[in-house]
Amino acid sequence: MRPLSYRRAAEIGEAVATVSTEPTSAFLAGGTTEVDLVRLGVARHDLLVDINDLPLADIENLPGGGLRIGALARMNDVARAAQVVEMYPGIAQALLLGASEQLRNMATMGGNLCQRVRCAYFRDNVSPCNKREPGTGCSALDGQNRGHAILGTSEHCIATHPSDVAVALVAFDAVVHTIGPSGARIIPIENFYLLPGRTPHIEHPLEHGELIVAIEVPPLPVARGSLYLKFRDRQSYEFALVSVLSALLVQDGRITEVRLALGGVGTTPWRARRAEAQLVGAPATAGSFAAAAAAELDAAVLHEHNAFKQELAQRAIVRGLDQAMVSAVHGGAR
Amino acid sequence: MSSAIGSPIDRVDGPQKVTGAARYTAEIVLPHMTYAAVVAATVASGRVAVIDTGRARGAEGVLAILTHEDLPKLAEPHLLPSLAGAAAPGQSFFPMQKDVVHYAGQPVALVVADSHERAQYAASLVEVTYERAPSITTIDEGRDAAYEAERLFGGLLPARDERGDVDTAMAEAEVRVDVAYRFAANHHNAIEPAATTAVWDDGRLTIYDSTQGIRASQLTVAQLLGMPLSDVRVITHFVGGGFGSKAMVWPHVTLAALAARHVGRPVKLSLTRQQMFTSAGHREEQEQQLAIGATRDGRLTAMHHEKLSITSPFDDWAEPATGVSSQLYACPNYRGEHRLVRGNTMTPTFTRGPGEAVGVFVLETAMDELAHELGIDPLELRVRNHAAVDGHGNPWSSDGLEECLRHGAELFGWAGRNPVPRSRRDGDWLIGTGMAAAAYPVPLFMPTQRARARLYADGSAVVQAGTQEFGTGVLTAMTQVAADGLGLPLGSVRFEAGDTDLPNVSSAVGSAGAGMISAAVHAAATALRDQLVATAVADADSPLHGADPATIEVREGRITQREYPGVGETYGELMQRNRLADAEAPGSWTPPPLDTPHGLLTFGAQFAEVAVDPEIGLVRARRMVGVFAPGRVLNPKTARSQLVGGMLWGLGQALLEGNRMDPRHGRWGATSLGEYLVPVNADAPEVTVDFVELTDTVVNPLGVKGVGEIGQVGVAAAIGNAVFHATGRRVRELPMAAELVMD
Ligand SMILES: Cc1cc2nc3c(=O)[nH]c(=O)nc-3n(C[C@H](O)[C@H](O)[C@H](O)COP(=O)(O)OP(=O)(O)OC[C@H]3O[C@@H](n4cnc5c(N)ncnc54)[C@H](O)[C@@H]3O)c2cc1C
Ligand code: SF4
């Protein structure tokens, strides 16, 4: 492993100042992504600034409703927080279906948003990869791309965004609070994830040294009936082939509000805007669900091994909406 | 007679393992230790043009860097399975002897430093420039140049097996099933990556090696380095699993020895998880085709079983796939063939259930298709066709297949199954059940096996054999065998292993370990008992003086006449009176000749219930039942563990495990446990294991046929057949990924 230095920051200002002035440094939270990548030689940081002492682990109700989740809150703590389970069950489910119990005890929410892709070519540190080494090409385009994305791809990168919880967060219009060298700002989560385009190595708009301090989820009645379905080859400890966050409000058989987002198929946590647009006002029937799913996946760009995901994602959407009907009617939204 | 054998006693090494006291090879601590890291080729074919070690040499803690330019020349390796008892390099090519690169992952340089991390880092700084040559790493790329192999498995087995007139019989068959299957490569992924520590002392070499056979490591290193065996000692107490990956002695072992000699200090070489995908063999990518001809009433008349697989540039290696299909069922006309493609991979190797894990999948899937086609219950079709004799007309050393099938069916609740596919549903899930027969050859090509027993006058005993514990429970089972052989309580016997200075046995591979080691241990223990009984009957002061040894038995350390249990004395009394501080006896066992007139298979039966989500393509096993007839079961608890583990392996083989080459780069697609999927606890269903115990008087003295492989064999077919039953869809590719299963 590459030799590197390690420092523990006591205050937010110190953490930001240290990382922003050291060009080859990074924050270290739970380390479950970062340490892996350092060991693989993919992350080549000379300094890791440990932020675990910063007071950013709280989960608080916001005065006007909604929730503020500290960047250092651990995945398991968030998943088991009563407010989360009650107000945003889809977030809790997405978290519990991710990684493993041990990892979730370490992994933080901030780190989760920033986790890197699982593309094997990115991680092998040898193959051409535009994300790891811009301009070298994308080995996945004509290579092994079963796990790769079909939405939001470009000619330069088709890696899937791996996060589960981010799928729920994009569905709920969460915002990311940061403090950087140029001060504090708020980034709507959909803007936080950049499409690969010609610059797959740039994944989010954070400045170097800009620290995520919290994630805020707005009050959202429809989210109370939300659910997260995750389909994967094995039953645990694996990323999604496809996952669906769905939440519905239905009145008199018509959909009045819907939240729909996909994991496992997009280069970003994928808000299914096209499908949502079709569904609002439509009858809450299998036919509407299937049509909306088809509309969303119409834009899919398929490669040799991931073509099945177009059909798979549509079926998953229909299933997700079907099941959301149950919670929409009986349990959740009113 | 026996009391310890057959009891489900706890592992004798359990406390050491759960407290962390058990030391694995990479945990061995020696003074002045140094650490080696392998620099592995990133191209699949060509030559090393330039190795620039400048930056690496400058890195902190680096002691030496070895390349093909300075590595001493070694004796030429010859491929032979380790069980045969000769040097057992995994391939007949040793890297770093020349500049040639035959496969990605091949060692091209070795860095030695004062810590593992520094060695790894310096290895990453070695800059290798390659002259790349075109490579072949998939069957598709080499298909046109496929050839029929003459012999396989290190020359041990013929590649073709033929009887009768297959073509005519096939043409005349009333019913035919003829199907092709494809299989992705598999990797063993034992929890402990391979590691070797080498220490030289006065020209003699000691190696701590993570191996399935310390004797094989000794023989191989000595042969490659041209050293007398007496100067090479191998010590291995605990191994964190092997599954075949540590059955052969791969180059890193000898490289560690060379590095240690070079730096004059102990060297520890631990392979990384990524390197384990390219350093210890794998199960080769393969295709198989099986045609079966049968009569309308379900009698097999012809079988033609072909395997096409990819091997290394230098060895004709294929796991033999026809050892079961050629003999499990009575079929007068049979042909088995193996064809090979030479490619740029290392030589593939034994992987749990070598050959038959795949061969039996094909056989038992085809049998299920035939049963379906004929409208005969799949279990009855097996029973109807099961051969009474092997392919040469020899009776089985012991059978038990029908008992396993029937008992398994009862445990599983097979009777009354509605055979119509897609006839059961549970919410989003379709439910199906499937079964398969299982069989695995009993190998007898090992040399003489040896052990030694020593009894002290205080009544405690040490029994030794040079094997190693790699999770099977061998230490426990051999303690039981030794205790019964000596007539001592379990607590008085310690079984010692893990050192080539002890009497030698062969590598524990091919499910042969328990049978051959127990044979030697039993021989030593009973020889010592007989020796002391002889002393007693010859001793005028013994209450047993003059008795016929045949009438004497020893229990709990007390020697008595069977008919008059009151007459006798303890070992201790006898030895103290005769001023014997201890007594010792060697024991050995030589296997029956290779042409022993018996069929040699271990039998079993596998049943599975699966749930399939047909829209999404996911398959979840709900329950599995396996019943096996492995001869005598030394310890049902450890045997059960092995069988459950084997069955879960089969689950992984069926549903998850597979690696594919990226032919552009000639590298594996998956090189971590994040990418190469094995089942996790959440995937493991309820697993029931039971035994049909048999007496086998042929295979070895205690009649042990072994449980290492048989648990795995047939599982994938049972699952695949259950998937068919659930969905009506035959998946003819492993693993059965979602995209193959979904409607
Ligand atoms: C085997 C395995 C399986 C997994 N499976 C899943 C899964 O199924 N679903 C899923 O969603 N995830 C999964 N994960 C990913 C896991 O959730 C992430 O690794 C984890 O959430 C990252 O959090 P961390 O605190 O450990 O981040 P770290 O590893 O410490 O950091 C990750 C990155 O984020 C940066 N960073 C961390 N905190 C901040 C901050 N506050 N502000 C700015 N930058 C920051 C770091 O500099 C680094 O670049 C898996 C991981 C592993 C290893
Ligand atoms: S998909 Fe993206 S991460 Fe993967 S090889 Fe291509 S550029 Fe790299």
Poorly predicted runs of chain A: 330-334
Named at the architecture level, the CATH assignment of the domain at 222-330 in chain A is 2-Layer Sandwich
CATH topology of the largest domain in chain B: Aldehyde Oxidoreductase, domain 4
Number of strands of chain B: 33
- Look at the structure and give the mean pLDDT of chain B: 96
Please tell me how large the radius of gyration of chain B is. 27 Å
CATH architecture descriptor of the largest domain in chain B:
2-Layer Sandwich
**Oligomeric composition of the shown chains:** heterodimer
Overall average pLDDT of chain A: 96
What do we call the CATH topology of the domain at 222-330 in chain A? Answer: Enolase-like, domain 1
Explain the overall architecture.
The complex is a heterodimer of chains A (334) and B (743). With 334 residues, chain A is α+β, with helices and mostly antiparallel strands. Helices cover 32% and strands 19% of the residues of chain A. Chain A contains 13 helices and 12 strands. The radius of gyration of chain A is 20 Å and the shape is globular. Residues 330-334 of chain A have low confidence and may be disordered. Chain B is α+β, with helices and mostly antiparallel strands. Chain B folds into 3 domains: 31-134 and 191-241 and 246-277, Alpha-Beta Complex (Aldehyde Oxidoreductase, domain 3); 157-169 and 282-443 and 596-741, Aldehyde oxidase/xanthine dehydrogenase, molybdopterin binding domain (Aldehyde Oxidoreductase, domain 4, 2-Layer Sandwich); 446-589, Aldehyde oxidase/xanthine dehydrogenase, molybdopterin binding domain (Aldehyde Oxidoreductase, domain 4, 2-Layer Sandwich), CATH 3.30.365. Chain B has 17 helices and 33 strands. In chain B, strand 30 and strand 31 form a beta hairpin. In chain B, helix 15 (636-655) packs across helix 16. In chain B, 61% of the residues are buried. The mean pLDDT of chain B is 96. The chains are: A alpha+beta (334), B alpha+beta (743). At the A-B interface, helix 8 and helix 13 of A face helix 3 of B.
